[in-house]
């Protein structure tokens, strides 16, 4: 045959039937010649979706290669897509070119989605594999059962990309397989890429001594090539076997897996020289689930080190200007580099070896000296670099590092509070880590919902290089995760940050003002809404003459105290109960907005919300209701004037009572918010605000204002309420003065103190600083409606459910509201004072609740015995919850080593105690709803029977008339 030339052709959807010949070859192009005298060229052609029994695309066989003139084979600018062969033949391929060719070139080709590989082959027994092969500027991607197998003398790959190919074949095949059976053979790999390839034996296999020559004399040069994300099951990514000279330079080995000796590079029987220069080895993952091309199989690919050199006696091996860096932490020791029996001078100071964080780099170096009887002595060294983790319960934020044979010592420190040291240092749930210095890390408890909550499969590992951004959730960042990321802002009812462009919920402001105004109107008018609803829900229960207001008040005060305890000391409650039932209910009693990280109710009326504005917004609820009351009074007066009713001014009593009630109800919210503004933590020796740590403490105007509010209003209010309650009940002060004293307690105390001192100085027993409401009969008669109404309304709010004085010598328990307010103040104050010391906080709050219980039992302040019993039970429940929390010493504690059953019992007990009342109420409401349905059924049956009786009587009457 003279020559073969195919230019500008397309071979598509051809099917080569299997012929009954010994070679069993058929495909799109099948050329079998006795001898070949001219060149073979195929250019600018496409091979699409062809099928062959053994060869799918192109087969060129020369039967008598000795008679051929070593012609050139050129494959240029070709496209091979979706060609396949019969998988029953394990040696099937896409292209096969046998011996007898002088120079084989594949240039600017695209090979994608094919099954079967490319084989340039000669029969080893012929020893005629002396041709050259060049593959350049070619993309090989997404092929199944693919191998580029070459048996030749010289093979050069330049600018070739192997991407997402798989080779699931017998052990002698790899994605790239290069062999030689002649002397002085060579392989050059230049400017190429191997990305995400899978090979059952390996990815690249190079053996330049196929016939087991006594002395390996082949040469391998790998230059400027990247191996990334590949998986070679048994041989690793790069296997070099029986090569005399190996040069690996300017290369990158990144995140490769598999292998028995090493995942990245394995060298065996290198008898001459091995040089690795300007090359980096990097590993980021400890394993990976690898799916072969076409999705035929999935494999778990492990990482087993960087470099292994074995069976290479007295080889000259030099590693220069290179780095080996491993990131994945392993509790087991991993051999990063294993080198056996090489000459001295393996490493110098230009080589850097790094182990994962929290591990040390260990070197085992063995020197052997062989002194033959004749000749010079030989010195060889065997070197193994392995990783060793810090002892369990300790940590380090540094890597084990070596340059040459000297190492940087790694110190391991005890695991910090809030940290998890079972693997590389990680944060426990809701903790945030930061560096104290170059070696020490501390963890700070985060505001709930700010920091990472690790799952069983995902831990919040500490990253010393990006600790400001790591460990946060909900698009948060910064110190203690206190800020939102760029283009994000705070949401009202969630701790997650929402996109600023999504803050379009202006309607919420209208709804907010409407609801607060309606609540203020309810406090003024006090319509029997709940009584009527309760009456309808409990229609099947016999009515009692006495009301249930006392019981309701008792439950209200108990719930408010429970809210304080839960806010500062509840650790063990199950998330669903705590987040969905207990905290929303208790915050409702305290007139607070409840933000939960898990809620999907992300309302954002403005894109300028910050943690500070959200905290201030807690006060807005109370203040809006408070200022709505006088506005309603003015509107009521204006309506009376328009309707010409007399008197124009409505009775002030209900309005004064509503103001007092919102002052009492909002005390806990105001105190909690004020204390929240003062909550500071020390981070890197700087005091910062807990909820947005970019604020430095004690230099902000709002913190100074909070201190003034506590000192001049919240604390004096307790004392003022105690004394003025008695004075109001005895008629020594008017209702207006009492309400003014409640709003401005500190000036009132100064006023009383001034007149008390003045009375002592003047020594006048009849001296009266504040006029009594009973001092003038004329005035009382003239203003009896207003004064009596105000006093009655205030006393109804202040001491309605409590025991009244029985004689002139007893004060009763009309001051008990001040006791309840004082309890809230103490609970919130102690919770804030000991917020960072969980055990001390639990102990203090438990003792405090026990004192409250004993005090309540001794005083029995409520009129109804039933109310006293309910209050006793609620306080006893809080004591038990406090004792349980003492056992659960702190949030985020690591209970490893403890009996998990005991911990579960504590959590379950706490959940039951705190959830029994909401569950009973929910059950009662459900039964009441069912009863309403039954009631409706009974009503319908009665109506039908009544109608039927009427129709029947009318029918009988008509019959009689007829």
Automatic annotation (TrEMBL):
<protein>
    <recommendedName>
        <fullName>Right handed beta helix domain-containing protein</fullName>
    </recommendedName>
</protein>
<feature type="transmembrane region" description="Helical">
    <location>
        <begin position="869"/>
        <end position="891"/>
    </location>
</feature>
<feature type="transmembrane region" description="Helical">
    <location>
        <begin position="616"/>
        <end position="635"/>
    </location>
</feature>
<dbReference type="InterPro" id="IPR011050">
    <property type="entry name" value="Pectin_lyase_fold/virulence"/>
</dbReference>
<keyword id="KW-1133">Transmembrane helix</keyword>
<keyword id="KW-0472">Membrane</keyword>
<feature type="transmembrane region" description="Helical">
    <location>
        <begin position="737"/>
        <end position="754"/>
    </location>
</feature>
<feature type="transmembrane region" description="Helical">
    <location>
        <begin position="839"/>
        <end position="857"/>
    </location>
</feature>
<keyword id="KW-0812">Transmembrane</keyword>
<feature type="transmembrane region" description="Helical">
    <location>
        <begin position="705"/>
        <end position="725"/>
    </location>
</feature>
<feature type="transmembrane region" description="Helical">
    <location>
        <begin position="911"/>
        <end position="944"/>
    </location>
</feature>
<feature type="transmembrane region" description="Helical">
    <location>
        <begin position="814"/>
        <end position="833"/>
    </location>
</feature>
């Amino acid at each position: 045959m003279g020559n073969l030339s195919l230019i500008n052709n397309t071979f598509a959807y051809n099917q080569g039937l299997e012929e009954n010949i010994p070679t069993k070859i058929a495909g799109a192009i099948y050329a079998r010649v006795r001898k070949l005298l001219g060149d073979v060229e195929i250019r600018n052609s496409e091979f699409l979706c062809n099928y062959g029994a053994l060869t799918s695309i192109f087969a060129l066989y020369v039967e008598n290669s000795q008679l051929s003139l070593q012609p050139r084979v050129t494959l240029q600018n070709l496209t091979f897509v979706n060609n396949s062969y019969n998988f029953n033949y394990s040696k099937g391929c896409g292209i096969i070119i046998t011996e007898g060719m002088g120079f084989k070139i594949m240039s600017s080709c695209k090979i994608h989605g094919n099954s079967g590989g490319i084989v340039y082959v000669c029969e080893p027994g012929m020893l005629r594999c002396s041709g050259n092969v060049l593959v350049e500027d070619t993309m090989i991607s997404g092929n199944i059962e693919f191998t580029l197998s070459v048996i030749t003398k010289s093979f050069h790959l330049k600018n070739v990309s192997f991407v997402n190919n798989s080779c699931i074949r017998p052990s002698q095949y790899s994605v790239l397989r290069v062999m030689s059976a002649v002397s002085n053979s060579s392989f050059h790999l230049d400017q190429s890429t191997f990305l995400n390839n899978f090979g059952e034996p390996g990815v690249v296999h190079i053996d330049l001594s196929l016939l087991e020559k006594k002395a390996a004399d082949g040469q391998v040069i790998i230059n400027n090539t990247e191996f990334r994300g590949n998986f070679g099951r048994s041989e690793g990514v790069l296997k070099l076997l029986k090569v005399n000279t190996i040069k690996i330079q300017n290369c990158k080995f990144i995140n490769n897996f598999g292998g028995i000796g090493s995942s990245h590079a394995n060298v065996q029987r290198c008898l001459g020289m091995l040089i690795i220069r300007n090359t980096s080895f990097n590993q980021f993952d400890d394993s990976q689930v690898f799916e072969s091309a076409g999705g035929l199989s999935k494999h778990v690919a492990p990482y087993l080190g960087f470099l292994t050199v074995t069976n290479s006696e007295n080889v000259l091996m030099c590693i220069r200007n290179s780095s080996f860096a491993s990131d994945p932490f392993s509790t087991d020791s991993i051999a990063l580099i294993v080198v056996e029996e090489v000459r001295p001078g393996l490493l110098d100071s230009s080589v850097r070896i790094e182990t994962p964080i929290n591990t040390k780099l260990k070197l085992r170096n063995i020197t052997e000296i062989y002194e033959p009887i004749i000749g010079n002595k030989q010195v060889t060294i065997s070197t193994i670099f392995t990783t060793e983790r810090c002892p369990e319960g300790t940590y380090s934020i540094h890597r084990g590092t070596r340059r040459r044979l000297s190492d940087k010592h790694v110190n391991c420190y005890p695991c910090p509070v809030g940290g998890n040291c079972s693997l590389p240092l990680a944060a426990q749930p809701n903790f945030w880590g930061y560096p104290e210095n170059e070696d020490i890390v501390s963890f700070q408890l985060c505001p709930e919902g700010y920091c990472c909550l690790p799952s069983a499969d995902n831990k919040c590992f500490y990253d010393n290089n990006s600790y400001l951004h790591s460990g946060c959730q909900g698009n948060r960042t910064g110190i203690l995760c206190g800020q939102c990321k760029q283009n994000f802002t705070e949401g009202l009812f969630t701790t997650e940050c929402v996109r600023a462009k999504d803050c379009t919920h202006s309607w919420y402001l209208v709804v907010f003002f409407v609801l607060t105004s309606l609540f203020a109107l309810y406090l003024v008018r006090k319509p029997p809404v709940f009584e009527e609803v309760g009456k309808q829900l409990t229609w099947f229960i016999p009515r009692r003459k006495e009301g249930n207001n006392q019981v309701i008040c008792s439950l209200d005060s108990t719930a408010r105290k429970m809210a304080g305890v839960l806010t500062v000391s509840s650790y063990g409650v199950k998330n669903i109960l705590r987040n969905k039932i207990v905290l929303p209910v208790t915050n409702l009693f305290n007139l607070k907005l409840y933000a939960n990280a898990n809620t999907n109710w992300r309302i954002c009326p403005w894109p300028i919300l910050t943690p500070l504005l959200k905290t201030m917004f807690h006060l807005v609820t109370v203040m809006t209701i408070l200022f709505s009351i006088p506005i309603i009074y003015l509107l009521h007066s204006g309506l009376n004037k328009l309707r010409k009713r007399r008197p124009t001014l409505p009775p002030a009593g209900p309005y004064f009572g509503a103001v007092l009630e919102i002052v009492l109800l909002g005390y806990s919210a105001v105190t909690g918010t004020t204390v929240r503004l003062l909550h500071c933590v020390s981070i890197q020796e700087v005091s910062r605000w807990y909820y947005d740590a970019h604020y430095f403490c004690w230099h902000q105007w709002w913190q100074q204002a909070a201190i003034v509010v506590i000192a001049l209003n919240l604390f004096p209010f307790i004392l003022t309420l105690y004394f003025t309650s008695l004075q109001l009940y005895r008629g020594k002060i008017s209702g207006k003065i009492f309400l003014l004293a409640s709003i401005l307690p500190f000036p009132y105390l100064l006023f009383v103190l001034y007149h008390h001192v003045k009375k002592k100085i003047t020594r006048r027993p009849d001296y009266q600083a504040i006029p009594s409401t009973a001092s003038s009969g004329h005035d009382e008669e003239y203003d009896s409606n207003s004064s009596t109404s105000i006093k009655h309304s205030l006393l109804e709010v202040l001491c309605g459910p409590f025991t009244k004085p029985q004689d002139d010598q007893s004060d009763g328990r009309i001051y008990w509201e001040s006791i309840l307010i004082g309890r809230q103040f103490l609970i919130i104050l102690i919770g804030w004072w000991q917020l960072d010391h969980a055990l001390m906080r639990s102990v203090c709050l438990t003792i405090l609740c026990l004192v409250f219980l004993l005090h309540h039992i001794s005083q029995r302040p409520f009129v109804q015995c039933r109310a006293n019993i309910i209050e006793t039970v609620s306080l006893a429940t809080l004591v038990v919850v406090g004792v349980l929390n003492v056992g659960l010493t702190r949030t985020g504690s690591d209970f490893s080593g403890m009996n998990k059953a005991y911990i579960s019992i504590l959590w379950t007990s706490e959940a039951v105690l705190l959830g029994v009342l909401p569950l009973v109420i929910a059950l009662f409401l459900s039964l009441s709803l069912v009863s309403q349905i039954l009631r409706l059924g009974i009503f319908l049956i009665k109506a039908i029977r009544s109608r039927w009786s009427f129709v029947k009587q009318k029918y009988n009457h008509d019959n009689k008339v007829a």
